[in-house]
Amino acid sequence: MPVHEIRHPLIRHKLGLMRRADISTKNFRELAQELGALLTYEATQDLPLEDEYIRGWCGEVQVERIAGKKITVVPILRAGIGMLDGVLSLIPSAKVSVVGLARNEATLEAERYLEKLVPGIEQRLALIVDPMLATGGSLIATIDLLKAAGCREIRALVLVAAPEGIAALGAAHPDVQVYAAAIDQRLNEQGYIIPGLGDAGDKIFGTR
Ligand code: URA
């Protein structure tokens, strides 16, 4: 499973701002959306184009437009919502499929409580968004359900990935490409990424 750590200066700068302990909810939220847009730019670099002839200001002109599969963005609730508008700022016509997962505290497995996929999802490229790839449980469960729905082309956008989550995802779904703003050091005993961002959902929604 290829993981693309996007080492663009804008991404590194913005992620550095997000790591500050004293960051405000407003700034964290804005930066999560901006990074969502920048990762979308990278994750869509190879989308196929087709020629189109249009009437321009000086007559007919050949332009290009994106061809092939349409896109569905798949935010994993709740933290994935924090990157959604950034993705949609670059792909405004994308449809949104929402997946809600909660950790069962007894089994520690990710359990689905919401699955609202767009019709015809099997024809679409799915761009999953979730800020933190920690153990990989939520991402693997989401890919499981997208594949069960017939989705064949799936990519994931994350802000920070842990090596443990990358390994788990690679074992479960080696065909899925991940675009990460950073690959960090490790998980701690509570499952938080070190150095990471802390609880991304709490910081996006102001619930910390
Ligand atoms: N979820 C978070 O929000 N942060 C982590 O570090 C790990 C999982």
TrEMBL record:
Its cofactor is Mg(2+). Residues 7-207 form the Phosphoribosyltransferase domain. It catalyses: UMP + diphosphate = 5-phospho-alpha-D-ribose 1-diphosphate + uracil. Binds 1 Mg(2+) ion per subunit. The magnesium is bound as Mg-PRPP. Its EC number is 2.4.2.9. This is Uracil phosphoribosyltransferase. Belongs to the UPRTase family.
